[in-house]
Amino acid sequence: MTDPAARRRSILWRTRFANLFGAVMAFVYFRFIDPVTSGPGVTWIEIVFSAAAVTALMIIGARFNARWAVPMLTQPGSAEARRRALLFPWAMAGSTLAAWVVAGVIFAEKVFPYGARLTRPLAVAFIALGIWIALAPGSVPGLKEG
Is residue 94 located within the same domain as residue 142? Predict the structure, then answer.
């Protein structure tokens, strides 16, 4: 597999499969094995919500990663393309981490006794972070504009 595009697709599909497998394992563990969070039988609403949440997180991650990889695809051989190629595994790991953090926040909101109280503050925090990134990406630590 010497084709860089094929290598990239392989990494992307392996990451997607690993995330899906991790989501299923986390669901099974917290739903059936953990005595603190396990409960009555699984309903269709929970299955549909879990599938929709995993799908949404994967689509958002794929869009972010595709946008991040544009210089590698449009300007092969350039300094920016080489830099991003070296950072590609780190970018994939970072987007995966971000998706798992969001999933953990959703889980905490659903499981903790006072989790419903977290909904508004977390929503405001995420909206504020999104507005900050949209309006002034250069001022956000760790982000580079362009």
Answer: no
For residue 31, what is the DSSP state? I
Separation between Cα atoms, residue 86 and residue 88, nearest integer Å? 6
**How crowded is the C-beta side of 20, counted as CA atoms within 13 Å?**
12
Is 83 in the same domain as 43? yes
For 81-140, give the secondary structure using H, E and C.
HHHHHHHHHHHHHHHHHHHHHHHHHHHHHHHCCCHHHHHHHHHHHHHHHHHHHHHCHHHC
Q: For residue 14, which of 93, 103, 97, 119 has the smallest C-alpha distance?
A: 93
> Which secondary-structure segment (H or E) carries 8?
helix 4-28
Same domain, 48 and 97: yes
How many of the other CB atoms lie within 10 Å of CB of 35?
Answer: 5
Quick one: tokens of 92?
A: 């994939």
For the chain, the domain total comes to: 2
27-79 pLDDT tens trace: 777 777 766 666 666 777 877 877 787 788 778 777 877 777 788 778 878 88
User: What domain range includes position 94?
Assistant: 4-105
Distance CA 100, CA 104 (A): 6
